[in-house]
Specification:
mainly beta; 42% strand; 9-stranded antiparallel beta sheet; 6-stranded antiparallel beta sheet; 2 helices
Length: 340
């Protein structure tokens, strides 16, 4: 495997080819906002990664189909909080805390990591794949100290790609709290069907109402219609009014074993797919939102806990306590499923 280091100063407003082969092309560019971007292309499509801003995946497109949610953001923006640049396809939620904070929590929405300013970034290249990777070190005096290495890997001839993350507690004396969610914001497709390799009824409608959700009469009625069975929760229906968001949880995935598969089957024959091990991600979240500004069908968000904040995870017993010097790795495969 070859490694090519990426330097911030090498990015400019003009797109530059960094690596090229018969199957892969890797280009770099700097947005007008100042954010650096790397795009990896194969014969099926492309993924675009922001190597120094949380290593978030800004965009993904395969077979001419965009995977990314619709939003008001035309480009990534400099940010410390994810809500200040919320237009990406995927980001890493966590890592000391994750999800929507309760009024008693002190962490930001989705934690400190989504917009982390990376220390270094690089490409990993072999005969059949290209990955964008990097390293971020978090350290606080009298606080936590960790090292995080994510990677986004695109394979030859495939419309599926891997999103990986390894976290290491660098403290020699302090246990580190760990919450992680791979937050993939898939495009909304009216009429699409969501299925998964889980027992029937595994997804349950969220009972709590987080601080950022302001219920409306229409939203309350939709929730009641889903609970009563009048509305099929597995079929996307733009007219149903997923505004504010409609959220479902599936717990206990670590008891199922093996690799789990989640699908969003569109009416045009395209099927979005996500696969991961339940042993790594015991909780799956489904997040649906459809209004004039944002349209997203996050048919599965794999997580170590529900995205209800640090205190809720601790109370539920799903907050990971990472021992000094210990590491945890996570891997998700996602994209467009091959037709049978």
């Amino acid at each position: 495997m070859y490694r090519i280091n990426l330097a911030r100063g090498s990015f400019s407003a003009a797109e530059t080819t960094l690596v090229e082969s018969p199957e892969f092309t890797v280009t770099g560019v700097r947005y007008p906002s100042g954010i650096e971007s790397v795009t990896v292309r194969n014969s099926r499509g492309r993924v675009e990664v922001l190597p120094f801003l949380g290593q978030m995946i800004w965009d993904a497109e395969f077979d001419g189909v965009s995977l990314r949610m619709d939003s008001t953001f035309r480009q990534p923006r400099p940010a410390r909080l994810i809500e200040d640049t919320y237009g990406c396809f995927a980001f890493h939620s966590g890592l000391l805390s994750a999800g929507c904070p309760s009024p008693e929590d002190t962490h930001p929405l989705h934690g400190e990591f989504p917009c982390a300013d990376f220390d270094e970034a690089w490409l990993e290249i072999d005969a059949d794949s290209v990955a964008v990777s990097g390293r971020y070190e978090y350290v606080k005096g009298f606080g936590d100290h960790y090292d995080a290495v994510p990677a986004v890997r695109l394979h030859a001839g495939s419309a599926m790609f891997d999103i990986d993350l390894t976290v290491t507690n660098l403290s020699a004396a302090r246990t580190m709290p760990l919450q992680y969610m791979c937050h993939m914001n898939y495009a909304f497709a009216d009429g699409a069907r969501m299925t998964q390799s889980l027992p029937e009824g595994a997804f349950k409608l969220r009972d709590s109402v987080p601080a950022h959700v302001t219920p409306t009469p229409q939203w309350t009625a939709l929730n009641e219609a889903i609970r009563s069975g009048q509305v099929n929760p597995d079929i996307l229906d733009a007219a149903a009014g997923y505004d504010p968001e409609i959220v479902f949880f599936a717990d206990g995935l670590d008891s199922l074993g093996g690799t789990l598969e989640f699908l969003l089957e569109r009416t045009d024959g395209v099927t979005f797919a996500t696969r991961f091990a339940g042993a790594d991600f015991p909780v799956a979240t489904r997040w649906l939102l459809h209004n004039g500004d944002q349209r997203v069908a996050a048919f599965v968000l794999p997580g170590t806990s529900r995205p209800e904040g640090s205190l809720a995870a601790k109370a539920a017993g799903t907050l990971i306590e990472l021992a000094p010097g210990a590491s945890r790795s996570f891997s998700v495969s996602t994209g467009i499923k091959e037709k049978a």
